[in-house]
Structure to design on (439 residues):
């Protein structure tokens, strides 16, 4: 993420682009809600969507009161955390600048990253988490996990950015490795779903999955190209890198599916595109177009195998947060050390451009530290919530479906009406979908 000098003055073009990018990234979370909602069984689709939507509300409040100051205020020492001088956004006015853009806008842009990172974790515990426990978790996790990691990587004086020298343009560690490691920890805290490895738990609505994936892809241009913080040539190069990596990931996954299973599936297309987009997120501002192509292809191929590892390890990562986001995030972050070019970075070359092995080591160390920190703290937070208020839904609620048990709603009404029923009469009929077999 590029941060220009605070004294450089407001640029209206850069500001306009970041306003648009902020809206694009915020749209990704409703897109994720549809993507995840289509992947679960029909009895819990509304609960899955609600976990994303409530993340928008909760994380926004937390971020603007304490999260942003922890992440982006001047360092309190050792590059670990901000000093909270702007707690509650105090002292930041409409005329305050971060580079060429208003600081308030920069804070809003970063808010959207925090929101979707928290929402992504929900996919690892689909179908079995208490809604109230999830709300509390997002509050604590944003403060204790997301904000510190964002400071390490995105703040100019964070230890990973300033001292280690690892590169992460738009969030391979902060978003992808972070949510993947956190999702793994929560999946272990809650345990597998009832019937895991014994019952088919197929996506109930693949068109919804594809719609969600399309919205994610659309928003990703704001996610990555918006991280240039300017309407410039770097943003254009990042946008193209994002597009080709998403395409390569999609094609790589489908090739594996076709050769392995004999079919190229719509779920595979959606998952492959997301894998490619995840992998290019940290590297989009460091590699050229060929590097982006290879990184996206590698992510699509590797992640198509990685999603099956949960069955061997008996870890119920319900919607493959680890298999896609963590694995692809690691691929994209580490391969910066191979494909980085000074044409994009301004000073760092990867192995293939004469930079040697040093950058690979820096990238790998950043991944390991973020993964271990996120996993450990998330596991502790999850355990604390589980032992106090309980994190896992009851067996009866899980079997009934969280939509009806928790939200008193169902996503679909499959009632069969008589030919003469009027709209007035149908309103009084019971929801037959409440009694229908679930997927």
């Amino acid at each position: 993420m590029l941060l220009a000098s605070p004294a450089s003055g407001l640029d209206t073009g850069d500001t306009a682009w970041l306003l648009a990018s902020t809206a694009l990234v915020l749209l990704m979370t409703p897109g994720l809600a549809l993507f995840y909602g289509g992947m679960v069984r029909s009895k819990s689709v509304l609960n899955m969507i609600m976990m994303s939507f409530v993340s928008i509300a909760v994380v926004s409040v937390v971020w603007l009161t304490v999260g942003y100051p922890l992440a982006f205020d001047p360092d309190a020492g050792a590059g670990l955390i901000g000093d909270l001088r702007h707690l509650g956004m105090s002292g930041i006015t409409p005329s305050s600048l971060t580079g060429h853009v208003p600081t308030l806008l920069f804070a809003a842009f970063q808010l959207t990253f925090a929101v979707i990172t928290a929402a992504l974790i929900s996919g690892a515990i689909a179908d079995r988490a208490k809604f109230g426990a999830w709300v509390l978790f997002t509050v604590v996790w944003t403060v204790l996990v997301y904000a510190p990691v964002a400071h390490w990587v995105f703040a100019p004086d964070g230890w990973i950015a300033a001292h280690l020298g690892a590169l992460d343009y738009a969030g391979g560690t902060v978003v992808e490795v972070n949510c993947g490691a956190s999702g793994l920890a929560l999946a272990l805290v809650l345990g597998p779903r009832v019937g895991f490895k014994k019952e088919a738990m197929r996506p109930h609505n693949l068109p919804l999955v594809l719609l969600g994936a399309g919205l994610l892809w659309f928003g990703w241009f704001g996610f990555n190209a918006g991280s240039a913080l300017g309407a410039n040539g770097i943003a254009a190069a990042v946008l193209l890198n994002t597009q080709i990596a998403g395409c390569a990931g999609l094609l790589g996954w489908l090739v594996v599916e076709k050769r392995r299973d004999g079919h190229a599936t719509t779920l595979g297309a959606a998952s492959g595109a997301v894998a490619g987009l995840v992998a290019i997120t940290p590297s989009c501002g460091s590699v050229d177009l060929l590097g982006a192509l290879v990184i996206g292809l590698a992510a699509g191929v590797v992640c198509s195998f990685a999603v099956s590892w949960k069955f061997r390890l008996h870890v119920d990562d319900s919607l493959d947060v680890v298999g896609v986001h963590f694995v692809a995030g690691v691929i994209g972050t580490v391969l910066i050390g191979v494909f980085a070019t000074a044409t994009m970075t301004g000073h760092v070359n990867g192995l293939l451009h004469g930079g040697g092995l040093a950058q690979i080591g820096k990238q790998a160390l950043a991944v390991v530290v973020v993964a271990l920190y996120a996993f450990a703290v998330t596991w502790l937070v999850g355990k604390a919530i589980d032992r106090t208020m309980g994190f896992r839904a009851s067996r009866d609620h899980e079997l009934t479906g969280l939509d009806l048990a928790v939200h008193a709603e169902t996503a679909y009404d499959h009632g069969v009406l008589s030919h003469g029923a009027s709209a007035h009469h149908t309103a009084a009929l019971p929801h037959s979908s409440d009694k229908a077999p679930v997927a």
The mean pLDDT is 92.
